[in-house]
Amino acid sequence: MSVVFQSSSGWVLDSLSLINRGYQQCIRWADSDKSHVKCCFKWRCFQILKSRYNLSGESMNQTRQLVGKKKQMVAFRGFLPKYSQCATKQIRSVILEGTKLLVDSARSLGYLTGETDTVEEPLPSQECSLAALCEMAKELPLVEDEEQKECIQLLATEDGCAAHVDLFSQVTENKEDWAAVVTMMGEEYVIPPNTAFLLSDFTRIQPLVQCKKFDLIVIDPPWENKSVKRSRRYSFLPSTQLKRLPVPQLSSSGCLLVTWVTNRPSHLRFVRDELYPHWGVQVVAEWFWLKVTTSGQFVFPLDSQHKKPYEVLILGRCPTNTSTRSSERPEIEDKRLIVSVPSALHSQKPSLSEVLKPYVGAEAKCLELFARSLQPGWTSWGNEVLKFQHVSYFNVTPDDRDELLSLRHTSHHD
């Protein structure tokens, strides 16, 4: 049920199911002993029950009735200044009508009905020191290319020991078909199956470049803005520094590039008019991620001048070799919507794996840059790449299979 509903307007996603599908089989290593466990990301993170504003409490239906008001149109034009009034009105209409259609369809399937679990559970909170560790690792000498025998190392040995892996200068990979709870840097992390990651910043990204080329690259930049500067919740990166990303070296022929962009007009213009052209990437579509409550309401007013209930994804295609026929690539539709209940955890985005798979193929090699979590079958890079993999964000319980095996063993000996 990861993709709850899909139509020509877009998709409704169950973000929690998208995360948990990677942990259906999980092994926990402790002192060379292994046990089967069940790992579930804490549901409390996706229990957004009410809209996060105290203006007038408009519901989505109330907001939709305000389409023609001049004041609201001016506010929305401030978000997309390059569009004409006609184009702006069309985009707003796409968001309102498309979201209503998708939410209504999801409700008919029993989703976004406002029903929640009655069990009280606190929101997990874990102090993340990964970025600081990356800074410390920069003091270590760089390994010369000719000395680097392998760019990929296995997550754990046969006895489950992951304590001695080099997380900062080699890509670490879990090649198994099951997830693993392992201890690294003195903390426990839940690692999905068939996943790889590199914990580093720009100065240590070279092992990733040496590793392989990718057919899909998703970028979630730490955009610079005033609220981030005030809160100091995470480090930000000036827009111009993004040009340093080695996207051309990481991209396969015809690679699909997807960038999360804030609602700041300067960021949108920068990606479309500077960043993508700098990499030789052609913009092919602009999508919107709509954030709704468990009842299907926008989390913020659509016409708020402070915070919007959506974020933008700009999709582009990297240059294609003459040997690759463009007809082999599926067409990407413009103005598609992705509707989901957002995470209450700051900067945790929904997985785009199921949404983008038709456009790149099931066997595509996928990469996320500036990642703060891991995905099955993906490679991830960032200085907080393991942030939401910390065991504190999961409910870890014993798996019945261990008890059954123990009972069978006892019965056999009796």
TrEMBL record:
PROSITE patterns: MT_A70, N6_MTASE. One of its GO terms (molecular function) is nucleic acid binding. Transmembrane segments: none annotated. InterPro entries: DNA_methylase_N6_adenine_CS, MT-A70-like, SAM-dependent_MTases_sf. Belongs to the MT-A70-like family. GO terms for cellular component: cytosol; nucleus. Pfam families: MT-A70. This is Methyltransferase 4, N6-adenosine. One of its GO terms (biological process) is methylation.
